[in-house]
């Protein structure tokens, strides 16, 4: 598994000390760069999503405005900007106006800690290709996501419409619950990387560690996605829930709630802000997935054989390629899965994702402790055995009950079938007589569909 | 320099938000003002080189606690007004005592600074190697008992709320299977005809027409039918009037 390790000549990994030393104009260039990148990303992301999902559904998608319909989103954006800005009469004016802003600003802010590349030379200044970094950078993303929820909730409340209020409530409950599972799936990454700063997490994924099993040395792969696959899978589910995407897009389930929290934002720049924030949030969680699990900006295997792969501005390209792949995954999921029910969503988040995650963290921490702490091995093993035994007993208890319940149900169904079959009138159910002429009598065996 | 500017800007913001919290008439605005105060505090922590505290302040207080407040306010309803009756006996007295206690705590904390020279941030976090590890070390070694007790208290509170709000069902919840069975045992396994089926009009007061042109009595709206029969406003169409009369009769049966 050495192949995942970047073989390129030492890339210049930034450390936390490299941040906060930029001259102000470099910071401004970076901030504007991120803003432009995100705006263009939304414009062409919408186009890309529509084009890709069309192909998955055997149609062409937008192909009128510009070559390949590339300007479709531009046209849509212009239309939104030129439409009349409607304030419904009963809304709470201040909050109705503020909530699109509250939802959009944190979405953009979260991108400031995403590492796009190593140390580069920008107009003669050596600087990391990342706006800023903090000792708690990943927590900052969670904090900004929780501020973004305010936009949704207040949009629902300020609209003074039942659909919007219900959409806002659903969304708040959903995002808050999935944020817990999401934060838990970061814990294993923090345990391995030993830091919460994004640039150092990327650095921690440059070289795999070694594990000694039965006296032999094995090198572990460097990207966390392999080492921490349970965390990654849970994160993937949570990122769909956190961004209100299919199959978890219940806040705007149009079958039940018209447009959900943005029902009253018919079509204007305010609606465009919601749209913008939704896509920027998708980009943020994708960027976080890449940074935490897919080696950040580091080149993937075949490219990493080339010496210059991880130097200069090249990593920016690898990062964008990974972004495109993760975004395509979002589209693929949207094209494949139906929306789930709200109680299923909540039960899945609280009863499956969070306990699974806690169990995995416990297991992983135990393995880490076994590797670090040579002295207390007996204690750790005893505790591990105790926990495993307890889990097994709990599982057995639930399994016995579930099996008994299943048997009971089967017996009940069989008894009822027997009873209804013997009853002259089929128990009062409207069953047609089976000897009607067009049934060819009861003697002839019915031909079911699918056998011919 | 930057810290001073941030402090004065945030001082204005947070004090005016706190005043707004006390004086605003709508509960949702008060909650939002509290959120603004919390955010200002978080920024102040960040400026004071406490990034972990800042992030946790936003995640826990602004993200979870305030969101819960807003959630409750939204569930209670948009236009419900607050009740100004104090239900807790001696609330003001206890509030005053708690306020005084808090003031004493703050005074002691600040007084500590006067008595002994401060360690300084660098000195406090040096041993552990950074801000986050230093907090982690304190929480999981020296204050581990207090930490666990606090979490146990929170879980107890959550469980208590659930137990208090829990209500046993008096009869089992009808499942999809039970409902379907009841429907098929009734007279109408299929849905009732909606108003306007086969009709030239889809208004709710127009009954559905069956394929042979007769009126489906099932589709006559009971409320409208009773109203029209009582007020004497039966329509001219004899077929429709008959259907409405029959619907009212069936209703009164």
UniProtKB/TrEMBL annotation, chain A:
A Gene Ontology biological process term: aerobic respiration
Record's subunit section: NDH-1 is composed of 14 different subunits. Subunits NuoA, H, J, K, L, M, N constitute the membrane sector of the complex.
Catalytic activity: a quinone + NADH + 5 H(+)(in) = a quinol + NAD(+) + 4 H(+)(out)
Known role: NDH-1 shuttles electrons from NADH, via FMN and iron-sulfur (Fe-S) centers, to quinones in the respiratory chain. The immediate electron acceptor for the enzyme in this species is believed to be ubiquinone. Couples the redox reaction to proton translocation (for every two electrons transferred, four hydrogen ions are translocated across the cytoplasmic membrane), and thus conserves the redox energy in a proton gradient. This subunit may bind ubiquinone.
GO molecular function: NADH dehydrogenase activity; oxidoreductase activity, acting on NAD(P)H, quinone or similar compound as acceptor; quinone binding
Pfam families: NADHdh
EC number(s) given by UniProt: 7.1.1.-
Coarse class of the protein's main subcellular location: membrane
Subcellular location per the Swiss-Prot or TrEMBL entry: Cell membrane; Membrane
GO cellular component, one term: plasma membrane
Organism: Sinosporangium album
Name assigned to this protein: NADH-quinone oxidoreductase subunit H
Domain of life: Bacteria
Top class in the EC scheme: translocase
Membrane topology annotation: Multi-pass membrane protein
PROSITE patterns: COMPLEX1_ND1_1, COMPLEX1_ND1_2
Annotated transmembrane regions: 24-48, 94-116, 136-159, 180-202, 222-241, 271-293, 313-333, 345-367, 379-398
Automatic annotation (TrEMBL), chain B:
UniProt xrefs under InterPro entries: NADH_UbQ/plastoQ_OxRdtase_su6, Nuo/plastoQ_OxRdtase_6_NuoJ
Highest taxon, organism lineage: Bacteria
Keyword set, alphabetical order: Cell membrane, Membrane, NAD, Quinone, Transmembrane, Transmembrane helix
Localization (cell): Cell membrane
Top-tier EC class: translocase
EC number: 7.1.1.-
Catalyzed reactions per annotation: a quinone + NADH + 5 H(+)(in) = a quinol + NAD(+) + 4 H(+)(out)
Stretches that traverse the bilayer: 6-23, 28-46, 52-73, 93-115, 144-165
Listed GO CC annotations: plasma membrane
One MF term in the entry's GO annotations: NADH dehydrogenase (ubiquinone) activity
Membrane topology: Multi-pass membrane protein
Described function: NDH-1 shuttles electrons from NADH, via FMN and iron-sulfur (Fe-S) centers, to quinones in the respiratory chain. Couples the redox reaction to proton translocation (for every two electrons transferred, four hydrogen ions are translocated across the cytoplasmic membrane), and thus conserves the redox energy in a proton gradient.
Family in the record: Belongs to the complex I subunit 6 family.
PANTHER family associated with the record: NADH-QUINONE OXIDOREDUCTASE SUBUNIT J, NADH-UBIQUINONE OXIDOREDUCTASE CHAIN 6
Protein name as catalogued: NADH-quinone oxidoreductase subunit J
């Amino acid at each position: 598994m050495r192949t995942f390790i970047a073989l390129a000549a030492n890339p210049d990994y930034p450390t936390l000390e490299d941040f906060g030393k930029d001259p102000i104009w470099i910071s401004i260039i970076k901030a504007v760069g991120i803003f432009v990148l995100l705006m263009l990303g939304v414009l062409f992301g919408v186009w890309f999503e529509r084009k890709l999902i069309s192909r998955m559904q055997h149609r062409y998608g937008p192909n009128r405005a510009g070559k390949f319909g590339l300007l479709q989103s531009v046209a849509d954006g212009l239309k939104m900007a030129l439409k009349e800005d409607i304030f419904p009469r009963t809304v709470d004016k201040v909050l109705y106006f503020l909530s699109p802003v509250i939802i959009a600003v944190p979405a953009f802010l979260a991108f400031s800690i995403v590492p796009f590349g190593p140390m580069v030379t920008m107009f003669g200044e050596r600087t990391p290709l990342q706006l800023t970094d903090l000792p708690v950078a990943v927590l900052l993303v969670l904090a900004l996501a929780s501020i973004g929820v305010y936009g949704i909730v207040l949009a629902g409340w300020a609209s003074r419409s039942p659909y919007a209020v219900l959409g806002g409530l659903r969304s708040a409950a959903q995002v808050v619950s999935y944020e817990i599972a999401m934060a838990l799936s970061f814990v294993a990454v923090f345990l391995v990387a030993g830091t919460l700063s994004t640039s150092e997490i990327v650095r921690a994924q440059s070289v795999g560690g070694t594990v000694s099993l039965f006296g032999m040395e094995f090198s572990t792969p460097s990207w966390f996605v392999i080492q921490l696959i349970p965390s990654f899978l849970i994160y993937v589910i949570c990122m769909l829930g956190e961004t209100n995407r299919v199959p978890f897009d219940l806040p705007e389930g149009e079958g039940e709630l018209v447009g959900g929290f943005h029902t009253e934002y018919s079509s204007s720049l305010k609606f465009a802000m919601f749209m913008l924030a939704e896509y920027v949030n998708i980009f943020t969680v994708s960027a976080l997935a890449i940074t935490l699990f897919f080696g950040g900006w580091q080149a993937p295997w075949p490219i990493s054989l080339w010496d210059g792969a991880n130097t200069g501005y090249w990593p920016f390209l690898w990062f964008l390629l990974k972004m495109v792949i993760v975004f395509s995954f979002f589209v693929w999921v949207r094209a494949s899965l139906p929306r789930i029910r709200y109680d299923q969503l909540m039960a899945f988040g609280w009863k499956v994702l969070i306990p699974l995650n806690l169990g995995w963290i416990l297991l992983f921490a135990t393995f880490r402790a076994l590797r670090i702490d040579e002295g207390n091995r007996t204690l750790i093993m005893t505790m591990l055995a105790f926990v495993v035994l307890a889990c097994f007993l709990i599982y057995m208890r639930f399994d016995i009950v579930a099996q008994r319940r299943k048997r009971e149900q089967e017996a009940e169904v069989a008894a009822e079938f027997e009873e209804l079959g013997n009853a002259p009138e089929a128990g009062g159910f409207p069953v047609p007589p089976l000897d009607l002429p067009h049934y060819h009598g009861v003697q002839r065996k019915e031909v079911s569909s699918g056998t011919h | 320099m930057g810290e001073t500017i941030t402090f004065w800007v945030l001082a204005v913001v947070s004090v005016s938000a706190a005043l707004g919290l006390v004086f605003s008439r709508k509960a949702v605005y008060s909650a939002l003002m509290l959120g603004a105060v919390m955010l200002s505090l978080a920024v102040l922590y960040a400026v004071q080189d406490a990034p972990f505290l800042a992030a946790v302040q936003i995640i826990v207080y602004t993200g979870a606690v305030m969101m819960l407040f807003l959630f409750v306010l939204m569930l209670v309803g948009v236009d419900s007004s607050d009740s100004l009756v104090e239900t807790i006996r001696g609330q003001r007295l206890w509030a005053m005592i708690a306020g005084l206690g808090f003031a004493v705590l703050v005074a002691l904390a600040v007084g500590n600074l006067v008595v002994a020279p401060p360690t300084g941030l660098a000195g406090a976090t040096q041993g552990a190697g950074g801000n986050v590890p230093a907090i982690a070390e304190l929480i999981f070694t020296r204050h581990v008992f207090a930490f666990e007790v606090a979490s146990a208290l929170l879980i107890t509170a959550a469980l208590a709320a659930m137990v208090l709000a829990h209500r046993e069902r008096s009869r089992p919840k009808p499942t999809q299977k039970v409902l379907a069975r009841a429907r098929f045992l009734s007279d109408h396994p299929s849905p009732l005809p909606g108003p306007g089926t086969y009709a030239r009009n889809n208004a709710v007061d127009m009954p559905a027409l069956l394929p042979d042109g007769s009126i489906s009595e099932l589709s006559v709206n009971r409320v409208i039918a009773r109203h029209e029969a009582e007020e004497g406003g039966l329509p001219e169409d004899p077929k429709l009037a008959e259907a409405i009369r029959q619907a009212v009769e069936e209703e009164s049966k």
